[in-house]
Specification:
With about 375 residues, the protein is of the alpha/beta class. It contains eleven helices and twelve strands. β2, α5 and β3 form a beta-alpha-beta unit. The longest helix is centred in the C-terminal third of the chain and has 20 residues, at about 270-290. The radius of gyration is 21 Å and the shape is globular.
Length: about 375
């Protein structure tokens, strides 16, 4: 039975929560009963303990090391997911009486972000891929951006639509905010060019429950006193080292283990990026080489390394494929409920061996049903 569970975990291509490396799963399994250096379950250790303070400190050190962050940034571990950030930073950094922040509308989640901001502020959509079915992304030269905007926001990788930016967008003289929830720490990024990066953990870093926020001090300190409720103010959590209230101890512990694994086992983001690109190459080759049996949805120039989205000839054919894949031990291949089809998410915890097994299954399935 244990071997079957290991195989099922390894072949988890879910869009989120996503797969975790087996080493981290085993560490979390042990810690549920007893954290070795504490002698009790991680679920019962006080968030005010010296042990947990060091967990938070190591997680922060690891994130800083992986991103190459200089001084002048805070690394926070918050609750509420990316969704809370959609509402928080417009309140923090935009004034209803001032210039409008600018957004890119590149897919499902960027649509959620700009809709949240528009509830309370005037916003400008600098570019939208809606008419193109969110299959393409803009190039930097396609954008005309205002130097007066209080901030510019985009999403680096759209999990639903399977498109991903391969360059940093925006102006360097306007605060650059980015939702990196689905590709954070999957590859190097020009972190010093961003004023705020946020990413919920359940793609590449751990279970749901914690969101990593990297925010530049200079931006954070621009927020007028009293504009935000105390709990939503980034300065509140920075001053408390992310332990202002009872935080999600287990989830932050998992992020610490995941970032330690990236630093010590993988060897950094360049090596993680090479692994992730190899996984994507294998799977896209299976889709592209199927003579139309599998049909990639995103434009080839813009498709995601993290989320491979594809379709088949009919919805019935897709359901038959998904059922067969499940019976073969693969999980999480359903496309997002808003678009259907199939989606294989290749987050950090998914191994090359798992992708090779999926590709072999796809080849065999095509031979039987083409």
């Amino acid at each position: 039975m244990l071997e079957a569970v290991r195989l099922r975990n390894a072949r988890n291509f879910s869009g989120g929560p996503g797969a975790l490396p087996e080493k981290i799963l085993l560490q979390l399994h042990e810690s549920m009963l007893c954290v070795p250096e504490v002698g009790m379950s991680v679920l019962g250790i006080s968030h005010r303990s010296a042990w947990f303070a060091e967990v938070v400190a190591e997680a922060e050190r690891n994130v800083r090391a992986l991103l190459g962050l200089s001084e002048g940034y805070q690394v926070l571990f918050l609750q509420g997911g990316a969704t809370q950030q959609f509402f928080t930073f417009p309140m923090a950094f935009a004034s209803p009486q001032g210039p409008a922040p600018e957004y890119l509308h590149t897919g499902y989640w960027s649509g959620k972000a700009l809709a949240a901001a528009a509830e309370h502020h005037r916003i400008d959509v600098a570019w939208s891929g809606k008419d193109a079915g969110f299959k393409v992304l803009p190039r930097a030269q396609d954008l005309t951006l205002s130097p007066e905007a209080p901030y510019f926001h985009y999403i680096s990788n759209e999990t639903v639509d399977g498109v991903q930016f391969q360059q940093t967008m925006g102006r360097d003289d306007v605060p650059r905010l980015c939702d990196m929830s689905s590709d954070f720490l999957s590859r190097p990024c020009e972190a010093q060019r961003f004023d705020l990066i946020y990413a919920h953990a359940q793609k590449n870093l751990g279970p749901a429950g914690v969101t990593v926020v990297v925010v530049r001090d200079a931006l954070m300190n621009k927020v007028p006193d009293g504009r935000l409720p105390e709990f939503m103010d980034y300065r509140t959590h920075a001053a408390a080292h992310s332990i202002y209230n009872t935080p999600p101890v287990f989830a932050i512990y998992a992020v610490m283990l995941a970032t330690r694994w990236l630093c010590e086992d993988v060897g950094g983001l360049d090596k993680m990026d090479a692994i992730n690109r190899r996984k994507a190459e294998l799977l896209y080759a299976a889709v592209d080489g199927s003579d139309g049996f599998y049909r990639g949805r995103a434009d080839a120039a813009h498709r995601s390394i993290m989320n491979v989205v594809f379709n088949m000839a009919t919805p019935d054919a897709e359901q038959q494929f998904l059922q067969a894949a499940s019976q073969a031990g693969f999980s999480g291949l359903n496309g997002h409920r808003s678009v259907g089809g199939m989606r294989a998410s290749l987050y950090n915890g998914v191994t090359i061996e798992a992708v090779e097994a999926l590709v072999e299954f796809m080849h065999d399935y095509r031979k039987r049903h083409a």
